[in-house]
Amino acid sequence: MIHRPRKRYGQHFLHDRGVIAKIIAAIDPRPEDAVAEVGPGLGALTGPLAERLPHLDVIEIDRDLASRLAAAYQGRVSVHQGDALRFDFARLPERLRVVGNLPYNVSTPLLFHLTRYASRLRDLHFMLQREVVERMVAASSTRAYGRLSIMLQYRFAMTKLFDVRPGAFQPPPQVDSGFVRMLPRPAAALGAHDEALLGRVVTEAFTRRRKTLRNALERVIDEASLRDLGIDPGERPENLSVSDYVAVANAIAGVHDRS
Q: Are the C-beta atoms of 161 and 26 separated by less than 8 Å?
């Protein structure tokens, strides 16, 4: 039975065998791995993963596709029908490896949702809109650098592995895609004494990103305190490193060490 892609789910099904092989090689699944696939769709990655694993969990929002996958992989794949944005990844084993061709319309909130489980994860491999991948891995003082860059780089070491052209999908998206690897950073390397406060500081800064730091952050920290941290108040939000933002958040929290 032919499945018509549904726009509300942002469905673009990967079909290029060369790209599929490249993705599986990058993930390099081993029989002892606990793996969860987000948005398996028609099973382009599900099949090759299931061939290499004794068990695979998949999360699929589309009821028709979830039923099809459950019938095709009886006993080998556990299909969790529902929204990955609401899925409790703590239900699955620790040291979990998460993979997927993420729907572009929910990729950013899904990344932030998965960040909550970072301490339980071994790694993540995702296909995303190329622009999003470039923002994720962007260095400070570049145009692509922003809130997404800082909050994900705080929690993960990330590497863009390769680009994928629209023709690898059906229907083809109107943008290029990128494949990225994310490795959770160890807890001892994180440094923020209040991660929620760090998030608020970064949001405050990039809500007013065209202003200098003295103005962009004036509601949370004064100019003198920025200078005490060795930060020039005349710089702009994109000029600060992740560690600079951690230092600002810790100073606001009353913690005076520069982590």
A: yes
Can you tell me the distance from the alpha carbon of 129 to that of 165, in angstroms, rounded to the nearest whole number? 10
Supply 87's token pair: 């899925």
Asked if 73 contacts 98 with a C-beta cutoff of 8 angstroms, the reply is no
Domain extent listing, the chain? 7-187, 195-252
Q: Quote the CATH superfamily of domain 195-252.
A: rRNA adenine dimethylase, C-terminal domain (1.10.8.100)
CB 150 within 8 A of CB 199: no
* Of residues 45, 36, 216, 52, the one with CA closest to residue 110: 36
Q: What is the pLDDT of residues 157-199, one digit of tens each?
A: 999 999 999 999 988 888 999 999 999 999 889 999 999 999 9
pLDDT tens for each residue of 137-161: 999 999 999 999 999 999 999 999 9
Q: Which residues contact 144 (CB under 8 A, 6 or more apart)?
A: 131, 134, 135, 138
Which amino acid makes up residue 142?
T
Q: Which homologous superfamily is 7-187 in?
A: Vaccinia Virus protein VP39 (3.40.50.150)
Q: What is the DSSP string of 123-153?
A: EEEEEEEHHHHHHHHPPTTSTT-SHHHHHHH
